[in-house]
Amino acid sequence: MSTPKKLYIYKNSLQEKDNAFLIGIPNFWKDNAVTWFSNFEALTRTLIRTDDELADYVISQLDSIDKALVRDITEYPPLNGFYDALKNRLVCLYKDSDVKSRAFEVICVRDYLFLYTMSAPKEVIVMLVLLSFISKSSAIHCYYCNSANNSACLDINQYEEEIRSNIIPIVNCDNAIPKTKPITFFCRKIVQTIFHPHRDNEVRVTRGCGWMPHAKDCYKDDNSDHLGTSCQCFEDLCNSGESADPNIMVVLFLCFSIILYFWRE
């Protein structure tokens, strides 16, 4: 029987290397707690500004974790609210589903939260797998950054995939964006030239989630203080900026099909 995967969220145990490794967060925080906390602190300062948003983002990154332990981090005051928000989300995540409640048990004791797999019938495990596929098929993942506080956001394609995943956050829009009703999300990239009266103009790139689609895939806005181009797309991580236009791909496919047809003739 394999050992359950674990997620440890520490602040005061960075020296405990064996306990500080993070498993199950493949996209943003990798390998060790030092990377986790340097990115985590940057996230609290810039990218995601509220405890609820931060907790939603962490939940969106949890991938097939069989066991999670959240330790008290009251020594780091800026994260106290996040700790409570994350704890509440982990409890809510598994308490409402009959299927999941049979396969998981959540216990809150003082400053500890345990979420662990219990003995479950095979049918329950199969249903959980199917539910995970349903969830992934309806969700979209997007790059989420702003070059105003993360210069790597200007051109993320200059970085290799392994490096990119450590410096450019990836979010599941369904989990990262608070909503009061069902919304179909898509990825968005906005490039703005901001005019400053007393210094050079600034190019700013924002990547994230959108939920109010425009009639055009890309459109421009012209204001007195900036020029902007917004593009929307509907595939995972398509807001990297280098993805091909689907209309162009259709034309290329048709051309290739015609050439192949006459070649065979």
UniProtKB/TrEMBL annotation:
Subcellular location: Membrane
Gene Ontology cellular component terms for the protein in this record: side of membrane
Organism of origin: Pieris brassicae
Regions that span the bilayer: 246-263
Gene Ontology BP, a term: regulation of synaptic transmission, cholinergic
Keywords, ordered alphabetically: Glycoprotein, GPI-anchor, Lipoprotein, Membrane, Signal, Transmembrane, Transmembrane helix
Matching InterPro entries: QVR-like, Sleep_regulator
Lineage: Eukaryota, Metazoa, Ecdysozoa, Arthropoda, Hexapoda
Membrane topology: Lipid-anchor; GPI-anchor
Domain of life: Eukaryota
Entry protein name: Protein sleepless
Keyword tRNA processing set for record: no
Lipoprotein listed as a keyword: yes
